[in-house]
Amino acid sequence: MQTKKTVTRLNSNYMDQYDAHVERQKRKKQRLFRRLILFATLVTLVIGCMAAYHFKQRALQAEKVEEYKLLQEELASLKKDEKDYKEEIELLNDEEYILDIARTKYFLSKEGELIFKTPDDDTSY
Where is the signal peptide (predicted)? Predict the structure, then answer.
């Protein structure tokens, strides 16, 4: 059998103060625990928001880099076209070149000149 030990509690001023002190410590510990949980939740929320924002910005930056590369390629192509057009303008300002084109494409000839067109004649004018 078990022996039951009971201690009688003294109703004294000291015991009432001690019980109040223990109760205050218990409430203090509960408030501290709640504050820590609240702080941890806020920190987790802020870090989550920052991570989401960071990944969204990385995706946006990758998209912009891709767009930049495409635009750079387009710019290079346009510069090449511009160079080709300028060369063509220079050539078209030359009267000899224009006469040569007129002779080959439109069969214009000088006085007394005969022009023969062959099927394998490939001009790039």
Answer: none
